[in-house]
Amino acid sequence: MFLVGLSGGIASGKSTVVAVLRELGCAVIDADVIARQVVQPHSKAHQQILQHFGPEILLENGEINREALGSIIFSQPEKRRLLNSITHPEILKEMLKQVLKYFVLGYRYVILDIPLLFETRGLTRFMKYTVLVYCDPPAQLARLMKRSGLGAAEAEARISCQLPLEEKLRWATHVIDNSGDWESTRRQVLQLHTRLEDSLHFLWARLALGTAAAGLGGLLFLLIRHFIS
Ligand SMILES: CC(C)(COP(=O)(O)OP(=O)(O)OC[C@H]1O[C@@H](n2cnc3c(N)ncnc32)[C@H](O)[C@@H]1O)[C@@H](O)C(=O)NCCC(=O)NCCS
Ligand SMILES: Nc1ncnc2c1ncn2[C@@H]1O[C@H](COP(=O)(O)OP(=O)(O)OP(=O)(O)O)[C@@H](O)[C@H]1O
User: Fold this and answer.
1) Does 44 contact ligand 2 (Cβ within 6 A)?
2) pTM confidence score
3) Across 89-100, average pLDDT
4) Ranges of each domain in the chain
5) Cα of 4 to ligand 2 centre, how many Å?
6) Does domain 2-228 have CATH number 3.40.50.300?
């Protein structure tokens, strides 16, 4: 089994790409979804957030007020680091559990959608491939403002909390350019899927070749021993 890391920038189109991959039957683990699960009331992360950010960070029903927490952490780097240090270990643990689940279910590869994959460089070494969902900066800004109802200044501030997409381009093994229309993105995702499936066949072919070579070597060894003795 191998892991594929999928990342991008805020509003660059990761969920859009993941929706197509899921449609094609791929196993995908979404770190943003897990980030929401691990801060549910009574969880360890929820208690720590309450302790460090105060009761004003909660909604009336006891859940985290994500909008309020977002306003704080996207404008204060030290608070962002604090939130990351609370949530990231919990997110990683849950991701690992889900990888094991997919392994047991027999999936040959799992796609991990991790927004901060390239910022957390240590993680990339566990990935056979890394896919960057790229989007040109003006389109990214416009889509973020529209999707999240933010003004230009606030949207730019959120984008600058992450490594620039241009830099992430240097690290990715595969790139999907989502600057254009949905159809163009869909075509690229289909190509990526074909490549992942092909690489699976390649792995099987290598395994079969390796087994055959070992068998032949053994036979040769027995023959030589037979003629020498
Ligand atoms: C700040 C929070 C409450 C905002 O919640 P909200 O529902 O508005 O946004 P959502 O979770 O859908 O995130 C949207 C995008 O914001 C960006 N983002 C989220 N957290 C961070 C962060 N700590 N640093 C930089 N970018 C981030 C990512 O691109 C993400 O895809 C939430 O994002 C959060 O708890 N973040 C900390 C956990 C984290 O790092 N999540 C990212 C996945 S590892
Ligand atoms: N090719 C496209 N053309 C037009 N709009 C798009 C395109 N791709 C995505 N969008 C829109 O841009 C917004 C961001 O896309 P999406 O949610 O897929 O990004 P994301 O990377 O998952 O975002 P985040 O990390 O912030 O959650 C959404 O409102 C989506 O509908």
Assistant:
1) no
2) 0.90
3) 97
4) 2-228
5) 20
6) yes
